[in-house]
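Dear colleague,

Thank you for sharing your sequence with our group. We've completed the structure prediction you requested, and as agreed, I am returning the results in plain text so they can be pasted directly into your records. Please verify that the sequence below matches your submission; if there's any discrepancy, let me know and we will rerun it promptly.
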Amino acid sequence: MLEKKFADIDKKFENVLNKNKRKLENAQIKPIHDKFLFAQNGITGLIAPPGSGKTFTYLKMAAQQQELDEKNPFYELVVICSTSGQFDQTVNSFKDIIKKSKLVCIKDSELLDWIKKYQRRVLKYNAINEYINSKFKDPNEEMQRIFREETLQKQTERDRIHFEEIAILRLEDLPS
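Please find the predicted structure tokens below.
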């Protein structure tokens, strides 16, 4: 009975795969280079017990990638996550080899917030570039959000100044 259910699931997945083959292939995580099979369109993370060589492996990957494309490093940032929020001895020993990527140390308890903020900055950067490339004619959804946010901030600042002026006037009207 269970085998039949699993076979049915396999068929469903096969049908969806065949139906969406082109889209799925385009969305597939692609290697940077034939000799360097790490993702070029995502985040690479290493999770393993302490002392297992994660930092060493990560730094070595960044150094190898530098050799694949001498002009443009794939890793804009190499984020090292630690409990102390400081580089450990491994990073301090090998950091001079990493010439093209910026090494950043993030405290492990702050990593998810940092990633969220970083993604927002990238999204904003891409939206601005897209808007510029459209010759300022076609703001995408993110650019419209930026405009609304900027307008709201200006309005809030104007309101704050206005309320301060009212408060000063009221203070002046108080009997001495």
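Summary note from our side: Strands lie at 31-33, 36-39, 77-82, 102-107.

Kind regards,
the structure core
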